[in-house]
Write a structure and sequence with these properties.
This protein has 213 residues and is mainly α. It has one domain: Arp2/3 complex 21 kDa subunit ARPC3 (Orthogonal Bundle). It is 63% helix and 3% strand. The protein is built from seven helices and two strands; from the N terminus they run ααββααααα. The chain has a two-stranded antiparallel ribbon with strand order 1-2. The longest helix is centred in the C-terminal third of the chain and has 30 residues.
Length: 213
Amino acid sequence: MFLGGREGIRMHVSDGVISVTVAVVTTAAAIGLIAYSTKGIKEEEIPKISLLSGAFFVSSLITIPIGPTSVHPLLGGFLGLVLGRRAPLGIFIGLLLQATLFQHGGLTTLGANTLLMAIPAVLIYILAKTFTRTPHFLKGFLAGFLAIGFAVCLLILLLLFSDHRYGDGTFSVVNMVILAYLPLAIIEGILTGFSVKYLYSVRPTFFEVLEKK
């Protein structure tokens, strides 16, 4: 995450924002999550993972101005519904390309950024498999909204573990993160809701991971 300058508040954590200890721990955790994501992967799953990795890569580069700052879409909820436990792999690929090609985020914080966006996607996948009879639009809305909510909570914990001063004051980094991403959570929830409803009507097999046991 970066506060100030032209980029404003972004979910991507930049190099130097978190402590070395947090960076090492999150990198180790991200390796474990990616290993879980790739276990038992089948060849026919690769095209869908590649497609969604590209969509995530592009959407996360889009900047949306909100007041004095800016945010960007995450697509975590949508990836969770479509890729299931493969979502961390797609997210990692997108983040790696962003960090190496556009210096978007950082290489030392690649593990932290992967966790910030992959854990919410996996949680959405688990919840969606639990609440199978939820209307399609509502399922999509909750997926988009909650994914950003989960990511914001993880980001706040990450920042506070690195330096408690991120939470000091009325205009603290933590408060600015919450204010900046609340409107985006609502917007992404609505867009994800319509996307999921439409795709279910024309190609329900797109969400086949939710039907597997």
